[in-house]
């Protein structure tokens, strides 16, 4: 599997401040969540867009499906939300149509994260989300405050820090490996792939999180790869 990383390895000065403050705080039990966009191209090659990254079975297909800015005209795409903690992953929430505003996020995604998080860890866990607009909206922040035992508000998560989220640096890769890339039934393959995510991969990705924070601080808040 090949991927293309377009993001610069240098962080902006004010983002470093957020990352420094974040890294110096100690975390208890935590539950991460993140979104990804999966698209099935017209040539039946599955590509996965995660922020600025593109995943494909090999380098050539990555180039053909966007790595060198080549696009097919009518991609079939879905957006996927997934949560992860040491004991496993949540059910995927698959959005087939439209975009996610705060209301849809509160109605369709957060209840799944809350329910599955409680099944995986009990009631007392800390919920973490990134700085997407739907996450930062005051309605979302209020919902999280009212329903989660603990959550990190929008001021606590450093921006543009996929290197500190197990989903970004590990779990999405694992999901791609577990999916049948030749199948056209995209949604079915996503759901089936999530069920095949290996427990040892999940736990290893969470176990190395503390080390990543330590390495980030050693590197003066630069990205950790």
From TrEMBL:
<dbReference type="InterPro" id="IPR036397">
    <property type="entry name" value="RNaseH_sf"/>
</dbReference>
<dbReference type="GO" id="GO:0003676">
    <property type="term" value="F:nucleic acid binding"/>
</dbReference>
<protein>
    <submittedName>
        <fullName>Uncharacterized protein</fullName>
    </submittedName>
</protein>
